[in-house]
């Protein structure tokens, strides 16, 4: 087991991590400040091993079940949009069905994925909405990614995340979600409450696995930001 003194939280930079769980593949640690549960770098897959698992996934654009799954993110975001909007699907994967769903109702969506749509130029723009479905749990340094995504949002715009939530150690032990070895960061409601406070966003939980962080509107007094 790795020395906990060698660990640092990828969300809040705290070194106050306690052992949370161990299975036959790896150990899991929980930050005592933001409550993120994470896998230490020494227990993570290599990029090549990670991509091989992603390549085995079947994300068919014509799969009605997959469309129904993504509708849990699509519907609450679409309901917040008026007129033609420009969005970003961050971590779109090889089959960007969610982007297609938004385009079907008149929006434009840029694509970014480290492995399947590595278009860094799209990360230099501002967006009316950003979706990040089943992605954040794959990221070892969520602080830097969330900082980047929220900086790309226009005032009032939503960042919609989809990820399963940690409940407690007992249920974590039998949780299928942790068994995917590409999953290395696990968030709870407490963790997202910490994120919302740190980044100054509005926080909404929708169902069991959709989280919306809305960037605050800029309030102007006499033509100046207040």
UniProtKB/TrEMBL annotation:
Which controlled-vocabulary keywords does the entry list? Methyltransferase, Transferase
A Gene Ontology MF term for this entry? methyltransferase activity
Top-rank taxon: Bacteria
- List the InterPro entries: SAM-dependent_MTases_sf
One biological process GO term for this chain?
methylation
EC numbers on record: 2.1.1.-
Q: Name one Pfam family in it.
A: Methyltransf_23
**Which ranges does the record mark as transmembrane?**
none
Protein name (record):
Class I SAM-dependent methyltransferase
């Amino acid at each position: 087991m790795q020395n906990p003194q060698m660990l640092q939280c990828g969300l809040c930079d705290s070194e106050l991590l306690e052992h949370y769980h161990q299975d036959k593949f790896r150990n899991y640690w929980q930050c005592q400040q933001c409550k993120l549960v994470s896998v230490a770098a020494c227990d993570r897959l290599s990029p090549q091993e990670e991509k091989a698992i992603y390549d085995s996934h079947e994300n068919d654009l014509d799969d009605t079940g997959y469309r129904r799954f993504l509708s849990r993110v699509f519907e609450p975001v679409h309901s917040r949009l008026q007129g033609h909007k420009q969005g970003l699907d961050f971590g779109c994967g090889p089959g960007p069905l969610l982007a297609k769903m938004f385009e079907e109702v008149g929006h434009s969506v840029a694509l970014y994925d480290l492995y399947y749509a590595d278009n860094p130029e799209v990360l230099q723009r501002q967006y009316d909405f950003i979706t990040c479905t089943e992605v954040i749990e794959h990221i070892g340094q969520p602080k830097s990614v969330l900082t980047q995504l929220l900086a790309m949002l226009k005032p009032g715009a939503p960042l919609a995340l989809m990820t399963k939530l940690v409940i407690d150690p007992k249920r974590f032990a039998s949780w299928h979600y942790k068994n995917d070895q590409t999953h290395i960061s696990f968030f709870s409601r407490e963790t997202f409450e910490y994120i919302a406070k740190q980044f100054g966003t509005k926080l909404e939980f929708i169902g069991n696995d959709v989280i919306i962080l809305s960037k605050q509107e800029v309030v102007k007094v006499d033509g100046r930001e207040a």
